[in-house]
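Cytochrome bc1 complex Rieske iron-sulfur subunit: structure tokens wanted.
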Amino acid sequence: MTDPTSGTPRRTVLCGAAAALLTTGAATACSTETPAHQENTGPRGDIDLGDPEAVPVGGAKLYRTERVIVSRPKADVYEGRSAVCTHQACVVTEVNGTEAYCACHGSRFDATNGDVRHGPASVPLPPIPVGVRGGKLIATRA
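Answer:
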């Protein structure tokens, strides 16, 4: 069957259109880092993360549902980071020791300071204030 307006075989028209859509979509999806306004997505305000002792001294813990990573460099010091990957806004899938891993595209981050250890992400995980209040670990997201 041919396209009545151009005389081109219908299969050629459809295949060309599909290729154009796929190429455009792939280039758009992979060409940019996550916009700054999306990096810190997740629940807003004070977020109760529970027992501060759940974060190991010298390590970090992922709170995936809350989209927060908390590290604990010293017994009384807690530091928070967004757990939203800066490559394409997937939520980090695991933290081992002080390394955060995003399974979507393989990015790895230093969970203590947010630095990128392995791309495709090139932007660090942004900080989120955390502290202990009333015996609970609390993250605050504006």
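The first helix runs from residue 10 to 30. Residues 36-141 form a domain with the Rieske Iron-sulfur Protein fold (CATH 2.102.10.10).

Cheers.
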